[in-house]
Amino acid sequence: MTDVLSVRPLLTGTQKYDKSWSTHNNGFGTIITAPILAYLIETKNGRILYDVGCDYNKVIKSETYFQSNDFPYGPPQMTQEQRIPSYLDRLGIRPSDIDLIFIGHLHYDHVGGIGDFLNSDIHIQKKEILSVRDNMTPVYFSDDISRLTSGKMIIMDGDYNVTDGVQAISTPGHTAGHMSLHIELPKGKPIIICGDAADLEENIKEEIAPGLCWNDQYQTAISSIQNLKEISKREHAYLWPSHDFNFFHKLKSFPDFYN
Length: 259
Ligand SMILES: [Zn+2]
Description:
The chain has helices at residues 56-59, 62-65, 84-90, 108-111, 126-134, 142-150, 201-205, 218-235, 245-250; strands spanning 4-18, 31-43, 46-50, 100-102, 121-125, 152-156, 160-163, 166-170, 179-183, 191-195, 238-241. The chain is of the alpha/beta class. The longest helix has 18 residues, at 218-235. The model has no long low-confidence stretch (mean pLDDT 97). Bound molecules: zinc ion.
């Protein structure tokens, strides 16, 4: 039995970049605009957010935080309406009504919005936290990480059951402790939120590693994609890539949901 009631993808912003950032050794010179997504999962056992997007307060001061040497294709773009609390407000939900924040990984476009959710439990992987402490690069903001660690952080290790029907799946490669989420719906086919284990549908179909991999672990990233594909085949589950606008446009738009 599944506790899941509904799943909603949320478009929290966009980011322009060279496609090779998504597809290792492929797509150099093609500039893409990628969605920055979070997902609201409502269950009988509480509300879960997978990822929380960028820090709005940094995006509106982008010249300070997203300098052109680190972000040559420009800063992320984000409107007030794309902030997660704005989406929740449209559903009559407050940020304090979110019980659990499930962080797929600690890059700025996935954890930056954590400041709105410091009353929620925050699940993060041990390997993810440890690897970031050792190796801060421009895709991490130290204050995002310190806000997260000042919150109600619960450190997890490997695969586990988040609640009935929601399974955390370890998908390392892009980062050391990257996590995907397998969700059983009450009616429809299961959904696997890949997170940045697969930015684009192409990563899944062609089994291409993300352009950026922790410690150059491209083969680990490919194994993670293959693992997700096997689960998807076995369970007849959808695989949802994280930064693919063509794919995102085919999904139901907010406030519509999957159930
Ligand atoms: Zn990432």
